[in-house]
Amino acid sequence: MTDRAAMPELFTWEFATDPYPAYAWLREHSPVHRTTLPSGVEAWLVTRYGDAREALADPRLSKNPVHHAESPGARGKTGIPGERSADLMTHLLNIDPPDHTRLRRLVSKAFTPRRVALFEPRVRQLTDRFVDGFAARGEADLIHEFAFPLPIYAICDLLGVPAEDQDDFRDWAGMMIRHGGGPRGGVARSVKRMRAYLVELIHRKRAELTAGDPAGADGAAGAGTGSGAGDDLISGLIRASDHGEHLTENEAAAMAFILLFAGFETTVNLIGNGMHTLLTHPGPRVELQASLARGESALLESAVEELLRHDGPVELATWRYATAALTIGGQPVAAGDPVLVVLAAADRDPARFTEPDTVNLARADNPHLGYGHGIHYCLGAPLARLEARTALSTLLTRLPDLRLAADPADLRWRGGLIMRGLRTLPVAFTPGAAQAN
Ligand code: HEM
């Protein structure tokens, strides 16, 4: 383990299945590591917690791809398929202050923790509906039948996409998750359709708002159930832009899209990876079920954070580029170099976390980087937490003897660069035990 020659290969099938031994090696021997990515692009991987946290907050590391030395301006590096062709570049994950500050302030006015909290009954309704769909069968694929539809329908509801159009979003998102990673064929087409739909919806809602001018609406009035005009997040975004500050229609469409995109596969994988961890760690899982049976919520809340730290959905933070020569953890980095902060490696750093490879659902000291850090800290964290808490409690309560229906070694992980998640998560349970809520 201490031999440099023993460096595990990166980006192989074994690495996609379990990257943690490779990350442990990098943290110890080459904490800021120059590597060639599968795309051929050279980048730095930052794997220690302290360096990662500093890098995420360093204003000299820009999110704007124009700073990439290799291909100025041309590459879309946020992981959004079809991004180059679609006009979606002006979103939060691709820009720096002062534009970022302005857009983030506008969206924060509409996407408030209060709006998310009001949404809880709807999320519970969705999780119950998905469990109802397979409860009688005694088996299910938790990715496709549960984790995948939840965030799509939840975000559509929140944005105000009418119920009759939400299945289209499910299909477009399905195309993106199945074939993500490149702006090819169906994926690019799905992104284009989604964008065209959102632009149209924004037009329509703006017209409805101007015509109806709902009295007293302040952008956070309702939970966003997709029902009436004015009480949804898109209307909130339009309104925020109408109050002095400027949000163009393009920016509003890009914002709606980034909320959908950033909140989709992340949530699928938070639920998928989290349930996978619980199903392969019976001790913590029994402890959590007992706590839920007692009607407690504290362990559930810390469990969501621990599952995110232990095997979170975002393996690497989205791309950053050095705008000047700098050092990270003592390693010189040239201007124009891409820097990838490996959240999954930082969150298992023994220099910060006691027994980092152990799943300790009650872990109290847990300042993980799973939602990032600094000005790009996840805007959707309150929604992600709500969805994860509701998903885990619904599954563990309604399906008490839930078990993995495959050898863990046979499970297939998606080999993406930014996201970490399972292709399928087959489970079995006693049908009779699937109590109604
Ligand atoms: C940013 C993780 C869910 C919206 C981020 C970042 C991370 C992250 C690591 C920072 C990326 C970087 O600095 O490069 C997660 C995880 C989720 C999740 C683990 C788990 C489920 C969501 C949801 C939404 C959302 C549900 C919205 C509905 C965003 C947005 C940003 C962001 C808009 C960009 C913020 C900015 O640049 O200012 N997320 N996210 N995320 N997330 Fe999330």
From TrEMBL:
Which SUPFAM superfamilies would you find in this protein's record? Cytochrome P450
Q: Which Gene3D superfamilies match?
A: Cytochrome P450
Q: Which domain of life is it from?
A: Bacteria
List the Gene Ontology MF annotations in alphabetical order: heme binding; iron ion binding; monooxygenase activity; oxidoreductase activity, acting on paired donors, with incorporation or reduction of molecular oxygen
Which keywords has UniProt assigned to this entry? Oxidoreductase
Q: Which InterPro entries does the UniProt entry name for this protein? A: Cyt_P450 (IPR001128), Cyt_P450_B (IPR002397), Cyt_P450_sf (IPR036396)
Chain positions covered by the region annotation Disordered: 59-82
Please state the Enzyme Commission number of this protein: 1.14.-.-
Asked if the keyword Oxidoreductase belongs to this entry, the reply reads yes
Which Pfam family, giving just one, matches this sequence? Answer: p450
Return the similarity comment: Belongs to the cytochrome P450 family.
Record's protein name = Cytochrome P450 107B1
